Amino acid sequence: MIAGGAPGGDWRERLDRALDTSTRAGAAATLEHSIRPAMTQFAQELESRGQTTNVTEEHVEGESLPNLMLQVDFGEATSFVYQVCPHRMRTPSFIPADDDFYVRLDVYLAEGGQDKDLNGYTRGQVIGDLVAEYERHLHFLTLTGEQMGHVQAMPGTIGEPPEDSQI
User: Fold this and answer.
1) pLDDT at site 1
2) Does 162 reside within a domain?
3) First CA to last CA distance, the chain
4) Rounded CA gap, 158 and 140, in Å?
5) Quick one: pLDDT at residue 161?
6) Which domain of life is it from (predicted)?
7) Domain contains 153
8) In what order do the strands lie in the sheet with 101-109?
C-alpha cells in the first residue's frame, strides 16, 4: 500500500496501487524491473555529469528480498542516500486479500523513513521520485551552506542578502 501514491497515472491505476497487497513475488518483480534499473540509470546519469555515485544491494539474513541503496557523495557535504527496504506486513483486515501478509518497498533517506511504498511504481515513476528527493537534498545543502565540490551555497542566511550585495 502506498502512502501518498505514485505520481502520475490514471486514477484507476492509482487506486489499484493504493489497494495493492503485493506478494513477495510482486515486490521482487518491482525491485527487479523498476527500482534497480531506475537507480542504476539515475546513477549513470549523475556519473556522466561528474558526480560520484554508488548503487549497492544488501541481503539481510532471513529475508529473500534485498535492500537497494543509491548514494551520491558530495565530499565534505552530506551525501544523498536513497534506500529501498522490503518489509513484510500484516494485511489490514479492511482490504480483501488472498494472504495474511504483504510486502512493502519502503523508501529511506539519510534523514529517515519517508512512509512511501514503491510497490506498483514504474521505472519512470521511481526515477521521478529519485529526482524529487535529490532536488530536495540539493536545496537542503544550499540552505545549510554546505559545499558540494566546486558548487558553493550562497553566503548569508535565509532572508538576508550576501554581505557584498547592495540593496
Assistant:
1) 38
2) no
3) 51
4) 12
5) 44
6) Bacteria
7) no
8) 52-58, 67-74, 77-90, 101-109, 112-117
Q: What is the residue range of 91's domain? A: 11-144
Average pLDDT over residues 66-83: 96
Over residues 21-30, the mean pLDDT reads: 79
Reference 126, options 6, 2, 5; nearest CA is 6
The pTM of this model reads 0.74
Residues found in the chain: 167
At residue 54, the pLDDT reads: 97
What are the respective helix, strand and coil percentages of the chain, to the nearest 5? 35, 30, 40
Report pLDDT for 63.
80
CA distance 58 to 62: 12
Q: Name the grid cell of 101.
A: 501478509
Q: Give how many domains the chain has, as a whole number.
A: 1
Those residues with Cβ within 8 angstroms of residue 65's Cβ, 6 or more apart along the chain or in another chain: 24, 27, 28, 31, 86, 103
* Secondary structure tally for the chain: helices H, strands E: 4, 5
Cα gap 82→128, rounded to integer Å: 13
Q: What gap in Å lies between CA 54 and CA 116, rounded to an integer?
A: 22
> Does 150 reside within a domain?
no
Q: Is residue 152 in some structural domain?
A: no
pLDDT of 126 > 80? The answer is yes
